[in-house]
Design brief:
single chain; alpha+beta; Glutaredoxin; five-stranded mixed sheet; 8 helices; 5 strands; about 10% strand; disordered N terminus
């Protein structure tokens, strides 16, 4: 091998190593944030103090458009018969959930747009217990997602919530912000619209409580939690966007 060939080979190897390290760092950071979320969940769930609106599970609760009456997940993509099912459990006040959305939101959008599998959002509100200054923002923001689902804008509103997640955990979402995010998602909000009334009435508070209870009862220990066909995705799925999409679509 000539000196020029050795130099080219060295440079190629170096570039590949750098890319591999970058992917590794991204995956480690996201997995770490999920672990932190689980530990935070375990700590915060010990505290039962809540200020602001509250809701209890109710099997007869009114459900937003597209919600499964068994798991209480909000369906945002439908695959053919026998397709894989992706379930994402999240609390809109959860910083680790915000990091997950920032890292993998584009991959999830690609999966939703493809309509090759079933995708469900499962909002939770456990963080309200330890963040009294938020005025039950986990409950209220998840209710707003249900209101947006009725308007056919669940995915866009979901994005808007995380894109505007308060920088300081516990600051919470104001009613004004939740309403404005509806406008940003393409939902009519001027005057007494169905969306604004839904927010004001807390129409889907009990749905959120049902979704939260379902998560607890089925072994969810923190947020974000991502299941594929009822099983947590392996850590290797979080190494890159391509790895995530491939893992989710595997065997589909």
């Amino acid at each position: 091998m000539s000196a020029a060939q050795r130099s080219k080979s060295k440079n190629t190897t170096s570039a590949a190593d750098k890319k591999a390290k970058l992917i590794s760092y991204v995956g480690i950071a996201v997995v770490a944030s999920i672990v932190i979320g689980i530990l935070t969940f375990a700590f915060l769930n010990k505290n039962s103090v809540t200020e602001g609106p509250v809701a209890n599970p109710n099997p007869d609760a009114v459900l937003p458009k597209g919600v499964d009456p068994v798991s209480f997940g909000l369906k945002v993509a439908s695959g053919p018969a026998g397709a894989n099912t992706l379930q994402i459990f999240e609390d809109f006040q959860c910083p680790a959930c915000g990091s997950f959305e920032a890292s993998f939101g584009s991959a999830i959008q690609e999966i939703i747009d493809g309509n090759q599998i079933n995708v469900f959002f499962h909002p939770m509100n456990f963080l309200d217990k330890n963040l009294p200054g938020s005025n039950s923002s986990s409950l209220r923001s998840a209710n707003a997602l249900g209101c947006a689902a009725d308007a056919g804008q669940a995915v866009n509103y979901h994005k808007a919530l995380f894109a505007n997640q308060p920088q300081n955990e516990g600051d919470g979402y104001s009613d004004t912000i939740l309403l404005a995010l509806g406008m940003a998602a393409g939902i009519p909000t001027d005057g007494a619209t169905p969306f604004s009334k839904c927010l004001q009435d807390g129409k889907y508070y009990e749905w959120v409580a049902n979704s939260n209870e379902y998560a607890f009862a089925n072994g969810v220990e923190g947020t974000p939690t991502v299941w594929l066909n009822g099983i947590p995705l392996p850590d290797s799925a979080y190494q890159s966007l391509d790895a995530f999409v491939a893992a989710v679509l595997k065997g589909n």
